[in-house]
Amino acid sequence: MTDLAGRSYVPKLYGITKSRKPGVDLLLRGIEDGGGRLLSCSFPAQKLAPVYIGAEDSDNHRFGLVVYPFTTTKRTTKNRPATEHRFQIRYGDPARVRNEFNPIGHDPAGVDITLVLAVDPETGIIVGLDPLVYAQLPIGISGYYRDSNARAVMSTGWAWWAREKTRPRTPQGEGWDGLESMVGFRPERLLDYARFEALATSLGFDTGLRLSLAGHFVEGRIGRHELEILYGVSAATILDIIESNFRLGVAVRGSIAEHHLGDLLDRDQCIASHESIDQDGMPDFRIRLDDKRELTIECKNALSETYKDGDAKVETQKTRDSGAGRKYTYDAFDIVAACMFPVTKRWMFKFKWARDLEPWTNDNTRIGAIQRIDDTWVDSLNDLLES
After folding, report:
1. What is the CB neighbour count within 10 angstroms for residue 42?
2. CATH, range 255-385
3. Separation between Cα atoms, residue 175 and residue 365, nearest integer Å
4. What is the domain partition of the chain in residue ranges?
5. pTM
6. Among 209, 201, 65, 49, residue whose Cα is nearest residue 133
């Protein structure tokens, strides 16, 4: 294995040419324009992706960035909307590389931060992609964002949105449907984005939670939390504790939505008892009804972005896996509870039987990745149980 800047954990390296230089230069200038200091860069001495960048911010905090950069352009393309800014996940010859194993590197020690970036040297816009969604690079796939997204980034320096992933027309298309988050920013916000990604990746946030977290980084960074002062440790130390403790990690990743769902189950008159299930790969709750039936509930966060007609949407697939493994089978849980807070700003839920969810187009024994929350969903468990 070829070594990259001493980072032997990177599973695969890709040869790149000098054509990547404008994009990499934009990242390096961004560090300095944001008040930071560039310490090192593996490119162009090593014409390889990922590019390793060492940097230091104005508080003397050091960053190791493992960057997978892709170039964004806006060009008139036949049969494509004029408002699109497109990028292609491409290293080498896509016809050959797309059929290979293309994992990206993550530092097992959690020190270096992996970034997957779409970079536009012409407009100075950078868009960060979820490195856990792109854990297996879909070589050859094109992605895009809109003029409206670009304007938001240029106006405020920081913007975030969700989009449906473009399905590759290759063997990598298996399981590639679903939603992804995008965080757009100006180059001077690169280290702010690195702070954001360190949090989002370490906590394994799904699309909804990543977008919620992005909203807290509008001003640059999350301030020192009261818990840091109370416990006398840094946020990084608290995150290390969370990461090393499975039960605590599950509680954090489940976030406040599961807490509020548990409160709702406590108050529901149709439920004799309930318990939280703290096991990887299992539903979130088991409930027992007065008639002795036992049912399981999976809690999911709705997306803040809705369909054009106002209907909400929810992603009903596993947060992390690959291919068909991301798709739930219909016997994985009995009921899905969609937390509507991202849409309504109220801690309310919509419920639906798993058996009634739309199937995956590739395999009707598995649940589809995205579900429309329409009038077939109900407001309470009692309504669902009576349906």
Report:
1. 21
2. 3.40.1350
3. 14
4. 14-215, 255-385
5. 0.66
6. 201
